[in-house]
Design brief:
Number of strands: 15
Order of helices and strands: EEEEEEHEEEEEEEEEH
Largest sheet: 8 strands, antiparallel
Length: 241
C-alpha cells in the first residue's frame, strides 16, 4: 500500500498467475449469477496481510493523474460472459476524512498488468460507476456495489480488473481496496502516470483484492460480435444521497 507520495518500495519480480478453480466461471449458457467473487463474507477479509497491510491504494487522484493507482487482480471466464454488476470493499487511509466525499468510482478491465502500467487508456473496457448510494460496514472496510448502466461482454479468457475511487487528495486522503483470503495471492498495483517513481510503474503484490463480478454466461455468437476491442465509457448519473 502506498502510504504517501514519497514511499519507495522494492519491486518483486513479475510472475504469471495460476488460476484457482474455486473462483472460475463454470460454463452454463444463459445462467445469471456470480462470475467472480473474492469478497466472500466478512471473515474472508483479514486485518493484515503478508506485507503488513490490509488495503492497497486504488484511486483516481482528482487533478493529479500522475498519482493514479490501480489495484489489479485477475479473473478467468471459462465461457463468454456479460458483466452486469461489480462490487468491492474499500477503506480510507492517510489523511482520509469521509466516505461521503468520494466523488465516484470507475471500473477498468485490462488484458494484462503491463497494459495497465503503460496507460489507463489501454483498458479494454471502462465504466464510470458514479457515486455509491451506500457504504455498508463489511469486515475490514466498506462494501460498495453497482449495477452497470451498460454491461460488458467478454469472450472466454483471463483478464485483469480494478475498481478505483475518484477522490480528491490530499483533502480526503487516499482510498484502498482491502485484501481477501480468497484467490491465488497474485495481484499488482499500477501507477501509469509514474508519480510514485515505481520502476516500470508496476508492483507485484502477494495478496488478493476484494472484488466481485456478477452477470451471465451468454452464447458464443452473441458475444463475439460485441467483444470489447477498445475503451468504451458509460457515464452513470450520480445518485443523490
Amino acid at each position: 500500500m502506498l502510504q504517501n507520495r514519497a514511499t519507495l518500495v522494492s519491486v518483486p519480480p513479475l510472475h504469471t498467475t495460476a488460476i484457482f478453480a474455486s473462483f472460475l466461471l463454470v460454463a452454463s449458457p444463459a445462467v445469471a449469477g456470480l462470475l467472480f467473487d473474492q469478497i466472500g463474507g466478512p471473515s474472508n477479509l483479514p486485518p493484515t496481510g503478508p506485507e503488513g497491510f490490509y488495503r492497497y491504494g486504488s484511486q483516481v487522484f482528482v487533478g493529479e493523474p500522475q498519482f493514479d493507482l490501480a489495484a489489479l487482480d485477475d479473473f478467468t471466464l471459462r465461457a463468454n460472459a456479460r458483466i452486469q454488476t461489480v462490487a468491492t470493499v474499500i477503506a480510507g487511509y492517510g489523511a482520509f476524512n469521509s466516505y461521503a466525499a468520494i466523488q465516484g468510482f470507475e471500473l477498468r478491465i485490462f488484458a494484462s498488468p503491463q497494459a495497465a502500467a503503460s496507460s489507463s487508456s489501454n483498458a479494454l473496457a471502462v465504466r464510470a460507476l458514479g457515486s455509491a448510494s451506500n457504504f455498508a460496514d463489511f469486515g475490514t472496510g466498506k462494501l460498495v456495489e453497482f449495477t452497470l448502466d451498460q454491461s460488458i461482454d467478454l469472450v472466454a479468457g483471463t483478464y485483469w480488473m480494478t475498481v478505483q475511487a475518484v477522490n480528491s487528495a490530499p483533502s480526503n486522503g487516499q482510498i484502498g481496496v482491502v485484501i481477501s483470503d480468497i484467490g491465488d495471492n497474485s495481484s499488482f498495483q499500477a501507477n501509469p502516470g509514474g508519480g510514485f517513481g515505481i520502476p516500470g510503474n508496476l508492483l507485484a503484490r502477494p495478496v488478493n483484492f476484494a472484488y466481485r463480478l456478477g452477470g451471465e454466461v451468454i452464447p458464443a455468437p452473441a458475444v463475439l460480435s460485441l467483444f470489447v476491442a477498445g475503451p468504451l465509457v458509460c457515464r452513470r448519473r450520480r445518485q443523490r444521497r
